[in-house]
Design a protein that fits this description.
479 residues, alpha+beta, 2 domains, seven-stranded mixed beta sheet, six-stranded mixed beta sheet
Length: 479
């Protein structure tokens, strides 16, 4: 009998649930939308109860659509999102999204500790990560309230255990990258109560049991979404890289079993851990990718995301329009949380097609800057980049990515890399697989570079100059 997993991918704008066979076949799937809410002053919040309900609704729908029984559950979380709750599990504040920048007041006052935190955790001091949000929340919700990452709260509500997997914990600015345990020093720097932190567990194993979807099922796989996608795309050896194009775009490069810090502005995290096995990765973030496309739609420049390629293909080839799509700040390697989106080179002959094209090229250019930083850290070029996520449906974006990178871009054949990755971890954790790559899919379409390296360098330099102007303008602003 086939061993089937219910794989949950709880994301920023939706929760997906798949029933996945031991061979990696998707037997059924369901999706429930969730709604992040901009609240001004750089704030983005989500309703934690809506996130929990979406998991249960999507999971039950996927189970109802499958003709075969399910034997285990794997859950991938959106990462770097924080929530405050009382001891019995009642959320007392809307969740603070990973996109939220209001905790910059925390990172500003801790800037003298930035180098030490980077040494301990492998992460730059930035409000993108969880700990600044926890400190910001703790100052606002009063006593007798616990603040944790959203995953720990969801795990508590699903299984009764307040746990966080080690890959998610490594995104917090609180985990010692070398020992893969909470750092007392980092916890003290942020003024948090270490006794309130969740237990850190492996990404695969006997992690709990849930009856949320009907009959009791073991939870045997947990991971933060981007590390789950890294597994899903079979980037299991050092030097293999993937980029997921969702609400944001997230580059991860596997670096092997030894921890290493970036010297070029990237983050360092735990990729996965189970038993005696573990791996690390370097990563960089483009905060707005799909959300930048949503902005194009809101502005009336396209009607649907499916219109991207048709609109971009009408742009003039000699357009000088450059976009830095930093609607909620710039991540690696710039690390400027106060940055806002920037358009330059507009003329009276600029139309919607030129702006659409510039936004797509801006996304691809930011990813290319991250790849350039990763290559500098690795000391060798990447051979290819594996890609997944909704925006990979845009051939214009994917071809532009290959052009700017000057390496092949290999398209993952399924839109569900995150769910399939956490399903692989769940199979391993349940003892239904002996290797992590068992049941993972091969790659699909391949985009080859179509421009010269000189042209790619020129276009990247033009983007980088624009991004530096954004950063420099903020650094010279007065109080």
């Amino acid at each position: 009998m086939s061993f089937n997993v219910l794989a949950i991918d709880q994301g920023t704008s939706s929760t997906k649930a798949l029933v996945v066979s031991e061979n990696g076949d998707v037997l059924s799937e369901a999706e429930v939308a969730v709604r992040p809410t901009p609240v001004g002053n750089g704030g983005v919040e989500q309703d934690p109860d809506e996130l929990l309900s979406s998991i249960i609704e999507a999971g039950r729908a996927a189970l109802a659509g499958a003709a075969s029984p399910v034997h285990a559950v794997g859950v991938a979380n959106q990462g770097e999102t924080a929530v405050a709750w009382r001891s019995h599990g009642e959320a007392v504040h809307r969740a603070i999204s990973w996109q939220d920048r209001r905790a910059s007041v925390v990172t500003d006052r801790l800037r003298d500790s930035a180098a030490r935190l980077h040494s301990i955790t492998g992460l730059p001091l930035d409000p993108y990560f969880t700990a600044p949000k926890l400190a910001w929340l703790a100052e606002r919700v009063g006593t007798d309230v616990r603040v944790t990452g959203i995953d720990a709260w969801l795990n508590l509500r699903l299984t009764g255990r307040c746990v966080t997997d080690v890959s998610t914990a490594s995104r917090s600015l609180l985990l010692d990258l070398d020992t893969r345990r909470w750092s007392d020093e980092a916890v003290e720097i942020f003024g948090l109560d270490g006794a309130c932190l969740p237990e850190v567990v492996d990404c695969a194993g006997e992690l709990g049991e849930t009856s949320a979807f009907g009959p009791a099922l073991p939870v045997t796989g947990l991971a933060v979404d981007q590390q789950a996608a890294l597994v899903g795309e079979r980037c299991l050896d050092a030097g293999e890289a993937k980029c997921t194009y969702g609400t944001g775009a997230f580059l991860l490069v596997t670096t092997g079993a030894a921890p290493r810090r970036s010297n070029n502005g990237l983050s360092a995290s735990v990729a996965w851990q189970y038993g005696d096995e573990h791996a690390y990765c370097l990563d960089g973030q483009v905060y707005t990718a799909g959300s930048a496309v949503d902005w194009l739609r809101t502005m009336g420049l396209i009607e649907h995301a499916a219109d991207l390629d048709a609109a971009a293909s009408q742009a003039r080839g000699d357009s000088s329009v450059v976009c830095v799509p930093s609607f909620v700040g710039l991540g690696a390697p710039y690390w400027q949380p106060q940055a806002r989106a920037h358009l330059e080179g507009l003329g009276l002959d600029t139309g919607s097609a030129e702006i659409v094209r510039a936004v797509l090229e801006g996304i691809a250019a930011q990813v290319a800057v991250l790849v350039r930083a990763a290559q500098a850290d690795l000391g060798e070029p990447l051979v290819s980049l594996r890609v997944d996520g909704g925006l990979t449906r845009s051939s214009v974006l994917m071809q532009t990515q290959a052009d700017l990178l000057q390496i092949p871009v290999e398209l993952y054949p399924s839109p569900h890399a995150t769910a399939l990755g956490v399903a692989a971890l769940a199979r391993l954790g349940a003892g239904a697989a002996t290797t992590l790559d068992q049941g993972l899919a091969a790659l699909g379409r391949r985009y080859e570079p179509s421009i010269s390296s000189d042209d790619a360098a020129r276009r990247l330099e033009r983007f980088d100059r624009a991004a530096r102007r954004v950063v420099d303008a903020l650094s010279t602003e007065g109080p």
